[in-house]
């Protein structure tokens, strides 16, 4: 449901604050949106996520959102880490 490296947590939708990673519920990992995106909670690592389409990649101290709405005919975005170089097509 997630992939973790030394500096990042990769997840489809996001994480619930105040819940240890191993106790996160699949429902939140796959569907959470507003509560996660608006949170400035320190998850211990930068969380890289998709699921919520935005016009541009989201870059915040605690998270990186890379869903730019390709499913709706918008751009497809990825990020090269740790350099923080975004690619869109």
Overview of this protein structure:
- It is a single chain.
- The strands form two sheets. The protein has a five-stranded mixed β-sheet, with no helix packed on it.
- The protein is globular, with a radius of gyration of 12 Å.
- The mean pLDDT is 97.
- It has 89 residues and is α/β, with parallel strands linked by helices.
- Helices cover 11% and strands 28% of the residues.
- It has two helices and seven strands; from the N terminus they run E-E-H-H-E-E-E-E-E.
Mean pLDDT: 97
Please give the order of strands in the largest beta sheet: 1-2-3-5-4
What pattern of helices and strands is seen along the backbone? EEHHEEEEE
Q: What percent strand?
A: 25-35%
Question: What is the fold's blueprint, element by element?
Answer:
Layout: E1 2-4, E2 8-11, H1 26-31, H2 34-37, E3 46-49, E4 58-60, E5 63-65, E6 77-80, E7 85-88
Parallel strand pairs: 2-3, 3-5
Antiparallel strand pairs: 1-2, 4-5, 6-7
Sum this structure up briefly.
The chain is α/β, with parallel strands linked by helices and 89 residues long. The protein has helices spanning 26-31, 34-37, and strands spanning 2-4, 8-11, 46-49, 58-60, 63-65, 77-80, 85-88. The strands form two sheets. The chain has a five-stranded mixed β-sheet with strand order 1-2-3-5-4, with no helix packed on it. Strands 6-7 form a two-stranded antiparallel ribbon.
